[in-house]
Design a protein that fits this description.
431 residues; alpha+beta; 16 helices; 10 strands
Length: 431
């Protein structure tokens, strides 16, 4: 049998494929996918090289092993190559567990891809070791193939390492430390990173936050962090909002906390109260009380919204209460969770807005079908038993027909000490 010649070129094809693939993916990522329309031939070339390289990573060691059956060193090293190739293929297919059919990339799968690089680098250098031991390095072409393969191996690993910081894996440590500095006790993980062209040129990082509260319950949330290319965080609070919120704060401790919270990775704590509202089932309670009081299904569970009367002022209140909670040792979501929501409803800092009323049911209950539905609703609200609704501001938005056109009428009902009165209605013309 003619001795089998080891090909270092074939043994580095997987790494060459991933080198090209990572370069293409870099272009795809920073163009938000648009570069695919230009680079698709190179993209599929990379895929082809990866598939072909995996084939040779199995075939070549097995052929070498069968050719040199009497050489124990060749048999052992070839077996190692096959084992490494098997592990490498399993890692490459790991994305399929999550029903992702595209090859792994350095953004989402950096540790996995780094392991693959090491495995196939080892396969390549074992091949070089085999060539040396079998004295197959006499030709200049063999030296060229080794130099080419070595360059591919070094470039593939070097580029991967230099891009580690932009990966999901490389970003986690940064955000974990940021959250610790802010005083948050939960577990922070980077879930996903995407590049965006609009509305700015940068990345959108999705963070997964999980904290066990003092009552034993888990608080879970997704946090979205925007970064422009210069590393600056994008916040939804504009300078005017920040200035006004800051003007309501009374001491340096409150201002220092707010200066941190305006970074987007902490901005979510300003809306932690919304999760608190859900946990307290406040919306469901309002729906149940109203429906039971009027005697029919006036509204659905999704009809109720609880929002700040003045968002900027309310955010300043949250800052103040968070500082007090921290001083008292309450660090649930660093002081922003255990906020007395009912208090802020009662003092009118939060407004209850009710939309999507069941007017078909309302009309069925009317004695006179020609009665104005707005007046009918007001009659029902004024006849509510005292104590049905807690003190606060309740806004009911009603769509009705006026002069052949639909309009939105907002009925504002104020409850004070259990008694209610109406403010002037607000009318909005619909197109």
């Amino acid at each position: 049998m003619k001795p089998y010649k080891i090909s270092l070129i074939r043994l580095c094809l997987v790494l060459l494929g991933y080198l090209i693939y990572n370069l293409v993916y870099f272009a795809l990522f920073y163009s938000a996918g648009y570069a695919f329309f230009i680079l698709w031939p190179i993209f599929f070339l990379a895929i082809g090289l990866i598939l072909l390289g995996n084939f040779f990573a199995f075939r070549d060691p097995l052929k070498l092993k069968s050719t040199y059956k009497e050489n124990p060193l060749v048999r052992k090293t070839s077996s190692i190559q096959v084992i490494l190739a098997t592990i490498g293929v399993c890692l490459q297919l790991s994305n399929m567990i999550y029903l992702r059919w595209w090859p792994i990339n350095y953004i989402d799968n950096f540790p996995t891809l780094f392991c693959i690089n090491l495995l196939y680098s080892a396969i390549f250098f074992i091949g070089k070791f085999q060539k040396t031991k079998l004295d197959q390095i006499d030709k200049s072409s063999n030296k060229s193939s080794f130099i080419f393969g070595t360059i591919v191996v070094l470039l593939c690993n070097l580029l991967l390492i230099t891009n580690s910081k932009v990966s999901v894996w490389g970003s986690t440590d940064q955000y974990v430390q940021d959250f610790k500095d802010f005083g948050l006790k939960g577990k922070v993980e980077v879930y996903e990173k995407k590049h965006l062209i609009e509305p700015y040129n940068g990345t959108l990082t999705t963070l997964f936050y999980n904290e066990t509260l003092s009552n034993g319950e888990s608080f879970i949330d997704f946090i979205y962090v925007s970064d422009v290319h210069n590393g600056t965080h994008v916040t939804t609070l504009d300078e005017k909002d920040k200035k006004e919120i800051r003007s309501y704060l009374e001491n340096d401790t409150e201002k220092e906390l707010f200066d941190k919270v305006t970074l987007e990775q902490f901005e979510f704590v300003l809306k932690v109260y919304e999760e608190r509202i859900r946990d307290l089932n406040l919306k469901d309670d309002i729906v149940t009380k109203l429906n039971e009081a009027v005697g029919f299904k006036l509204l659905e569970n999704y009809s109720v919204e609880i929002t700040p009367a003045d968002k900027r002022k309310f955010y300043s209140i949250l800052i103040k209460e968070a500082v007090k909670n921290r001083e008292n040792g309450d660090t649930d979501i660093a002081g922003f969770y255990n906020i007395d929501i009912n208090k802020h409803i009662n003092n009118k800092s939060l407004i209850i807005s009710i939309k999507h009323l069941n007017f078909s049911v309302i009309e069925d209950t009317q004695n006179n079908k020609n009665d104005n539905r707005v007046d009918y609703l007001k009659d029902k609200l004024t006849s509510l038993p005292v104590g049905t609704l807690s003190d606060g501001i309740y806004k009911f938005t009603v769509s009705t027909l006026s002069d052949g056109k639909y309009i939105d009428i907002t009925i504002t009902m104020v409850v004070e000490n259990g008694k209610s009165y109406f403010e002037k209605d607000t009318v909005k013309q619909l197109n």
